[in-house]
Amino acid sequence: MLDMIITVGGIAYGTLLVSVVFFRNRVTEAMRIDALMLPKLTDATRMINPVIGMLLIAYNAHSLMQ
Questions:
Q1: What pLDDT does 17 receive?
Q2: Collapsed DSSP state (helix, strand, coil) of residue 19
Q3: How far apart are CA 46 and CA 6, in angstroms?
Q4: Residue 36 confidence (pLDDT) above 90
Q5: Do 41 and 10 form a contact (C-beta atoms < 8 A)?
Q6: How many CA atoms lie within 13 A of 7 on its CB side?
Q7: Terminal CA-CA length for the chain
Q8: What contacts 44, CB < 8 A, 6 or more positions away?
Q9: Residues 38-60: pLDDT tens digits?
Q10: What pLDDT was estimated at residue 14?
């Protein structure tokens, strides 16, 4: 049961990372991967988020199918 919760949470976080490209608000800006890891934030670093988000979604969806 805990595995399912973590997997669904990973899919939700991946979806949030993909939405960073389309929406700019306090929630999406605070949860950006580049905001957590890189010292300078630019629009160029914003494009890291959908790539990592898609990877998270794919990995967690694959985990759900097993």
A1: 94
A2: helix
A3: 25
A4: no
A5: no
A6: 13
A7: 14
A8: none
A9: 888 888 889 999 999 999 999 99
A10: 96
Instruction: Answer for the pair 41, 34: CB distance below 8 angstroms, yes or no.
Output: yes
Question: Could you give the angle at the alpha carbon of 17 between the alpha carbons of 24 and 43, nearest 5°?
Answer: 50
Asked if 17 and 50 count as a contact pair (C-beta separation under 8 A), the reply is: yes
Asked if 34 contacts 45 with a C-beta cutoff of 8 angstroms, the reply is yes
Q: What is the pLDDT of residue 15?
A: 96
Q: Are 32 and 20 in contact, with CB atoms under 8 Å apart?
A: yes
Average pLDDT estimate for 13-41: 90
Tokens for 16, please give them.
Answer: 């949030």
Residue reference for tokens 């969806």? 61
